[in-house]
């Protein structure tokens, strides 16, 4: 009877009778993986590559969001959104903005509000991305609005429904998380 491979060489005695485990083969021994197993491995690898590419694309999107927000210009922030856009507040109320002009006006009110409270910058942490097919994703971030003294004046978590149109990601809906 073979000694289990997880035992040390000393515990097994002579290592000459132990055969190494071959991870490329289902039983670690002589027969190769099936074609279906190899296809599944390729599919998994492609999915991992796609997931990494999506993560990088969404990170780039939110980096651009920070730049747009730092202008405190609602038009710049609104460029990342597509109308109609639905905003769900943390209390559960939903507001639908049917035109791009409405989205611009909404974000001008938002950035003016933070500026009046001393907001000078924005940053995000805790990015989580879930693919929703090949043209959409759900992304969640924690926002930090920084004041002139470097301390956060506001922090909240928000999720975004992102849709790829014309090769770029846009927000079509967002949900502020309740505390």
Tally of domains: 1
What is the N-to-C order of secondary-structure elements (H for helix, E for strand)?
HHHEEHEEEE
Structural class: alpha+beta
Question: Beta-strand level of the residues, as a percent range?
Answer: 25-35%
Give the fraction of residues assigned to helices: 25-40%
CATH class: Alpha Beta
Mean pLDDT: 82
How far from one another are the termini? 60 Å
Give me the CATH architecture, please. Answer: Roll
β-strand number: 6
In short:
This protein is 35% helix and 34% strand. It has 179 residues and is of the alpha+beta class.
Task: Map the helices and strands.
Layout (H helix, E strand, L loop, with lengths): L8 H4 L22 H36 L3 H5 L2 E8 L5 E4 L2 H17 L2 E13 L4 E12 L4 E14 L2 E9 L3
Parallel strand pairs: 1-6
Antiparallel strand pairs: 1-2, 3-4, 4-5, 5-6
Q: What does it look like?
A:
By secondary structure, this protein is an alpha+beta fold. It has one domain (35-176): Roll (Nuclear Transport Factor 2, Chain: A), CATH 3.10.450.50. It is built from 4 helices and 6 strands, in the order αααββαββββ. The protein has a 6-stranded mixed β-sheet with strand order 2-1-6-5-4-3, covered by helices on one side. It is globular and about 40 Å long.
